[in-house]
Amino acid sequence: MSEFCIIGSGISGATIANLLRKKHSVILFDKARGPGGRASFKRIKGKIGFDHGTQYISPKTNEFKKFTKILIKKKILKVWGGKHVFLNSQKKEDKKHIKIIGKNGNNDISKYLLKNINCNYQSELIKIYHKNKSWHLFFANGKHYTFKCIILTCPFPQLKKLSRKFINNSFLKKSLKMDANITTMIAIKKNMKSNSSYLFEDSILGWAGNENSKKRFKSKYDLWTLQSTFEWANKKINQNKRNKKENSKIMIDKFFQLSKIKKTKINFISNHGWKYSSNSKPFKIKSFWDPKKKIGVCADWFVGPRLESGWISAQDLFKKISK
Ligand SMILES: Cc1cc2nc3c(=O)[nH]c(=O)nc-3n(C[C@H](O)[C@H](O)[C@H](O)COP(=O)(O)OP(=O)(O)OC[C@H]3O[C@@H](n4cnc5c(N)ncnc54)[C@H](O)[C@@H]3O)c2cc1C
Predict the structure, then answer these.
(1) 200: domain CATH number?
(2) Same domain, yes or no, for 301 and 314?
(3) Same domain assignment for residues 262 and 294
(4) Which residue range forms the structural domain that includes residue 151?
(5) How confident is the model over 108-116, as a mean pLDDT?
């Protein structure tokens, strides 16, 4: 029996799994088809695909800077050399912070950290209970396992549903709003005049990133990842599965209108709705660990809305477990 069971293969789950495996036996489950969570890469052919969650990693803390530098040396990550175009008058490019991306996709960090870990995908945890010093975990595929220790890394609303009977800490009683995001991915005719990415000042479209600017693949098309504003996605997300075509069309029309790129045939289109994309207000604690029941939680939302936040939370949890 593995000692630690970790739920989630995003940066938080992958980091804590990697740290724990040095001293403990670890097994990981994720409901998705592959690793990365909100930093997933949607592959469409060979190396060609889209970072449809995290676009760029901009390290802020010295510890995380050090970590990303090591991964750049190991050729897992690389520095992004593109240029942002700010069509939003409020924001200016922050030239102090470099922008880093995965060599093949932004889930490369998770892949690297989980290299020697037993990972089980398409395994959605639906219920947990604690009895006789053991955790009983029930999955949507009908499987049931027992572990001594569990670590959860789900978005806050999902964590609350799963664990509220077992976690007695004030952070779980608070409410934390996580905004939605709707992402539309398109492949269009190559336009040599296109920029690398745009930040818009618009009520619907927030951001557009040109995947070709990441120089991971050669394609006869320009691949654009279009990300909505939170406000628009919050209103649309519950019906997005039903209205994918319509929502994508609204975003694509906005993209051509605002970027002034010549409207052209769409050769590929895909839409992904993130119900819990990011949070605005962090908690006072960076992670949670109950040493008696042996349940832990780490996730970006403890610390902030960025990938680095998940890494910081996992490092903090590891310190608590090791005490
Ligand atoms: C559209 C979008 C754009 C973003 N852009 C950026 C950016 O440019 N830069 C940046 O730094 N950050 C960005 N972020 C934020 C960044 O993606 C997150 O902060 C980070 O990925 C969170 O990592 P995590 O491991 O805490 O959570 P997640 O990545 O969400 O990992 C949680 C994992 O748990 C799994 N899971 C959840 N519930 C269950 C369950 N019941 N059973 C099994 N598995 C479960 C999920 O499938 C998921 O893989 C963006 C996010 C989104 C959505």
Answers:
(1) 3.90.660.10
(2) yes
(3) no
(4) 4-45+106-176+282-322
(5) 97
Task: Break the chain down into helix, strand, coil percent, rounded to 5.
Answer: 30, 30, 40
Considering the domain architecture, whether residues 148 and 197 belong to the same structural domain is answered as no
Shared domain for 249 and 193, answered yes or no, is yes
Q: Which residues line ligand 1 (CB under 6 A)?
A: 7-13, 29-32, 37-39, 53-57, 124-125, 153-155, 158, 181, 183, 227, 274, 277-278, 299-300, 305-310
Predicted confidence (pLDDT) per residue in 43-89, tens digit: 999 999 999 999 999 999 999 999 999 999 999 999 998 777 777 66
Q: Is the separation of the CB atoms in 37 and 309 below 8 Å? A: no
Q: Do residues 256 and 309 share a domain?
A: no
Q: How much is the mean pLDDT over the chain?
A: 94
**Å from CA of 228 to ligand 1 middle:** 17
Q: Which atom of ligand 1 is nearest to the CA of 309?
A: 19
> Helix crossing, 11-20 with 307-322: angle to 10°?
30
Give the span between the Cα atoms of 38 and 181, in whole angstroms.
11
Bin 79: left if φ > 0, else alpha if -120 < ψ < 50, else beta: beta
Q: Mean pLDDT, to the nearest integer, of 225-253?
A: 98
91 domain residue, yes or no: no
The protein residue with its alpha carbon nearest to ligand 1, atom 53, reads 277
Strands (DSSP E) found in 154-287: 178-189, 197-199, 205-210, 221-228, 266-279
Split into its structural domains, the chain has a count of: 2
Give me 177's structure tokens. 């709003």
**Does residue 245 lie within any of the structural domains?**
yes
Task: State whether 229 and 265 are in the same domain.
Answer: yes
Q: From ligand 1's centre to the CA of 40, what distance in Å?
A: 8
Q: Where are the alpha helices (DSSP H) in 226-306?
A: 230-236, 244-259, 300-303
Q: What pTM was estimated for this model as a whole?
A: 0.96
